[in-house]
Write a sequence for this structure.
């Protein structure tokens, strides 16, 4: 698991939390911040997934640079 997957999930949860608080308080600025933070988290997770996929393919091909 890549660190981007973990930090991305944290950002996503923080964004959803901000959106929930904004829904209760009626704060549109906080809602927009939450939407942006959630999106940032999803992008980070996707990047981490891609890194994982590349490393896995590299290992399977026997060309893992970390083994050298």
């Amino acid at each position: 698991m890549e660190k981007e997957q973990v930090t991305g999930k944290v950002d996503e949860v923080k964004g959803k939390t901000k959106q929930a608080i904004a829904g209760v308080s009626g704060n549109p600025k906080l809602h927009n911040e939450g939407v942006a933070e959630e999106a940032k988290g999803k992008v980070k997770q996707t990047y981490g997934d891609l890194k994982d996929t590349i490393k896995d393919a590299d290992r399977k091909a026997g060309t893992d640079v970390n083994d050298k």
User: Anything to note?
Assistant: The chain has a mean pLDDT of 92. The chain is about 85% helix and 0% strand. Helices lie at 3-25, 28-61.
